[in-house]
Amino acid sequence: MQATLLKHVPEICRIHLDHRLLRCEEKEDCVKLFFKNDEEANCDVLIAADGIHSVVRELIPNRGLFYTGTQVFRGLIPKEKMQKLYPDHRTIRDPVNYSGKNQHIVVYPISGGRIINVVAFFSKPEDEGKPMDDLEIRSATTEEAVDKFSGWEDEVTQLLKSIEKPTRWVIRDLYPMETYVSRRIALVGDAAHNMTPHLGAGAGQAMEDGYILGRLFSEGGSARWDRILQAYDLVRHPFGNMIQRNARAQGFNYELNAPGLENIKEKGQELSPEQISILRNAITENRSWYENDADEDLARAVEFLNESSG
């Protein structure tokens, strides 16, 4: 992907490698950047895509990250291995979402179907917001993952046993921001709306941020950067925050902690037909934004941009 992107960078653009941003200062006439390699630079406008632990975000009012109470085992299984060990396992053919109380597992193919990706979540909702001193990512053992999901059906145990080198991740979320911009700074991607992975939407939303912002600069020209940042925030801030909320809610749906499921307390407890319908509708509704057209948002942003020059 990096090579593909580099091929489309205009010759007028310069790419600087080995520059980790430590801090920045927003001045009246520029943004001043300070890098780990002792380099400094000034820019008229800063577009910050510096991720979940964004340095630039600290210049815009925010309440920071918080621990969601959820952790996850991640692992990969060659499809060929699963076919030999468990030829009738449903994950060989189909993506599957296993749901249980305070736990769920998402399984789907990657790499052209050659690899089965396994993401096994487990939560303590009462731990949300508590300090978390554990490493955000660490190595785990197959036995650790199997033990965490003890009591689940055999095909889940078979799946987890087939992961050779699982890793364990802490899931953090970002309190929704009131704006993604300041006068000379715009946040994009996780810097603006880091979200839980339950919709698989984080990377896609970062791309839409970049698409809208890039098209606005193309439409308005760099001299109108102040109005462009306002137009960007007008459309991307409410939409990004909505996806962020929906992702969080989808995690509650998958782990049977949604409204209407309050009586579900134990692992393996059966849902009524009415509760299954409630859950299906909630999951479907949280995906309804898939049909949103970024170009419609772009048109609104361009209209706002051009209002200032009318």
From TrEMBL:
Keywords carried by this UniProt record: FAD, Flavoprotein, Monooxygenase, Oxidoreductase
UniProt GO molecular function: FAD binding; monooxygenase activity
FAD-binding domain ranges (all copies): 13-246
Named cofactor requirement(s): FAD
InterPro entries the UniProt entry points to: FAD-bd, FAD-dep_Monooxygenase_BioMet, FAD/NAD-bd_sf
A Pfam family that the UniProt record links to this protein: FAD_binding_3
Family to which the UniProt record says this protein belongs: Belongs to the paxM FAD-dependent monooxygenase family.
Name of this protein: FAD-binding domain-containing protein
Taxonomic source organism: Collybiopsis luxurians FD-317 M1
